[in-house]
Model the fold of this input.
Amino acid sequence: MSATLASFSLGEFRLTSLVMTHMAKTYQIINKRLSGPEALCDGSIAVVTSLAMHEDLNQQQSTAMLHFQGLRRMIDLRGGIKQLFLINRHIGQKVWSIILDDLRRAREKTRRHSFLQWVRDTSTDVLDIAFDVIDFTELLDTRTNDNKLFALDYTDALLVLTGSLLEVAPVGRELRHCRDNLVHKSLLAYMVAFRPEYGRRLAKYDLLGQGLRSSTQAFTPVTIADYELLLWCLFCGGIQVFDEGEEWLSLMIVRACEYLRLRTWAETRHVLYNIAWIPTIHDKAGEALWKSFEGNTHRTS
Done:
């Protein structure tokens, strides 16, 4: 691993004779372990995890995937990733990082690809963190009651993502370009909904609300994707950071829905979900926001 990391830091991916010698010895050791009573011990899991990381760093994805599949089988036999975290959190974190990377690659050609239509012409800094938020959304969207994300990792992810957004720009600072500003402030509002709170509006986010309000009002949508992005931004703000009953918000949502020919909450929710939306977190508040201005139109939910 040391030789691999050194090569990785220099941008050179080479299998030197030293690395191959160590790899051969490692395979001998792990094969012996896997055929004996220590097959599922922490040490064996750690070694297979290191092998998967080694092959991934050396851009040998097919070999890394073989190690990863074996690793998943080992984790399943140990009672799942949650049980591993309870027994050995350090190894669990290493395994979890590989799972996240695998999920990220699997989704890269699907939701990430489609997400580009809404964040085109966005700066690299904003785009990178936007993709991280999409990865986090995908991760949560695949969870079930029997396979929930470990609480500490959920909190860690929230802190890292929110911190990354604030590194791009503090809440009260405007970014240079209108689209950057809109996406950045909306991502912050989106992440607010994931914060553990008892009740919907105990916390106030006035400064964020002001920034998102000005960025949505300054944004001029042209394409269908622009209107869909604007609609998502308005709902992110309306759910969490805007005050209830703001007339401008109702008017902008109605206009966006009319342009997109969205007549029901189900149709609107479909657009929001395609961008970034967790039903268990956003649906109730989103539908309530829809119904708050529904009487101003001829739509029915």
